[in-house]
Amino acid sequence: MDNFVYEYPIKVYFGQGCVKQYLGQLLEGCGKTVLLAYGGGSVKKNGIYDQIMSELEAAGKSVVEFAGIMPNPTYAKVQEGAALVRENHVDFILAVGGGSVIDCCKIVAAQARNAQDIWDMEFTDHKYPGEWVPMGAVVTASGTGAEMNNGAVITNEDKKIKAGLFGAHADFALLDPAYTLSLPMGQVISGAFDTLSHCMETYFGKPDHIILSDEISEAVMRNVIRNLRLLIADPQDMGARSELMWASAMGENGILKIGKVTDFQAHQMEHQLGAYTDCNHGQGLAVIHPALYRHIYENNIGRFAHFAQEVWRISPEGKTEQELALAGIGALADFIKDVGLPTTLTEMGITDESILKAVADTCSITAGCCKKLTRNEIFEILKECV
Ligand code: NZQ
Ligand code: ZN
Q1: Is 61:212 a contact under the CB 8 Å cutoff?
Q2: Which of 73, 134, 173, 361 is the most exposed place for a label (fewest CB within 10 A)?
Q3: Residue 231 contacts by C-beta under 8 Å, 6 or more apart in sequence?
């Protein structure tokens, strides 16, 4: 296991009714002016906006609205938010939404307090913001675990890059599973797959031998698989909805990464696919994972065989280690199909080979993977996905 320092700065409030119960008191001492940030309007249809507004009004806040944060938030939207914060002397940012809204706000918060362009600061000077406008998050769509960290995935449309920037972490996160009831089932499913992907990307990193973080990860993966099936069978199952929401947070609160070098190669490929096609994150991952794993599993057959046994409960009896490893990847592919996720890029409307080539040529290549890929291999894997 690698050496580590673990500290957790985000206070998490979980459960039905948590916004009403805690938001008012959390807003005390946050200053007078609050930027209320949200997406394309789902919060207005499902009543969440009204609930939050009434808490803000009761707390005597003056509210500046920052609406229309799109899925796969853009760098231009970040700059729009940062300008609003500066012009209105915002004291606190409240992000109400899924990963896109929360990510956008992390960088808005940091950009507003830093004169230098954040993209240049991080990608050219390799410096990271140490100051930001304080923020809190109310989660309305789970899966990304974005509320639990200070990484934010932003699409720079001019540069054609979707990449991770570091910004603010929330001071608090409110996770009410009932807030996800209005989320379309397709998004619930792609979000849950994102959680599974975060676990796998960490699990298949290094070291090769199983450590405590891996065993916790196996439990989270089994939990996501079981509860997603339960929730598809009964969307009103609040137990399953709650489990998925907490599993999502567990995927990104750092616990599973303790002592690990993570992989996140599938994510790097998917993010660039997003930069070129604006595709749904969890769906892109669902298509890429099995193809990527079939390509690399021979470089760590033992770990893939363990994955088959511990996550998919496949019996090793009568199987070689290689057969077991392949059966695990097969079970993953079957699960993706069973829950209704796309299994090919064609199903997602992506067939243009020149886009796949551009993705392969521009995505980051990670070091944590059991096989470091070449750009040509990435192109081959993406072509297999079509
Ligand atoms: O914009 P509105 O109208 O709110 O609609 C959203 C959006 O269309 C809708 N939605 C959210 N909550 C809802 C709801 N609709 C009805 N009822 C509700 N309660 O859902 C749609 C998708 O929302 P979005 O926030 O884009 O989804 P998600 O949470 O999957 O976030 C995806 C973004 O997060 C990034 C992804 O790359 C992508 O940009 N990620 C962030 C990570 C992080 N910071 O740690 C990790 C992930 O790997 C991921 O890359
Ligand atoms: Zn993800």
Answers
A1: no
A2: 361
A3: 188, 192, 237, 240, 241, 244
Comparing C-alpha atoms, which of 92, 113, 112, 183 is closest to residue 144? Answer: 183
Q: What is the spatial distance between Cα 378 and Cα 209, in angstroms, rounded to a whole number?
A: 26
- Nearest-CA residue for atom 15 of ligand 1: 183
Residues in the chain predicted with pLDDT less than 50, given as ranges, are none
Ligand 1: nearest atom to the Cα of 181: 19
Instruction: List Cα–Cα distances, 296 to 32, 198, 300, 326, 365, in angstroms.
Output: 53, 18, 8, 11, 14
184-210 residue pLDDT tens: 999 999 999 999 999 999 999 999 999
The DSSP call for residue 264 is: -
Q: Are 119 and 69 in contact, with CB atoms under 8 Å apart?
A: no
pTM: 0.98
210, 263 Cβ separation under 8 angstroms: no
Q: Of 71, 69, 99, 72, which Cα lies nearest the Cα of 82? A: 69
User: Is residue 183 in contact with ligand 1, taking CB distance under 6 Å?
Assistant: yes
Q: How far is the CA of 166 from the centre of ligand 2 (A)?
A: 15
179 Cα nearest atom in ligand 1 = 19
Q: How far apart are the first and last CA of the chain?
A: 38
Distance 99 CA to ligand 1 centre (A): 4
143 Cα to the center of ligand 2, angstroms? 8
- Tokens representing residue 270 in the block: 């998917």
Cβ burial, residue 6 (10 Å; 0-12/13-18/19+): exposed
> Which residue shows structure tokens 């914060």?
85
- The residue whose CA is least distant from atom 36 of ligand 1 is 281
Alpha carbon distance 210, 216 (integer Å)? 10
Rounded distance from Cα 317 to ligand 2 centre (Å): 34
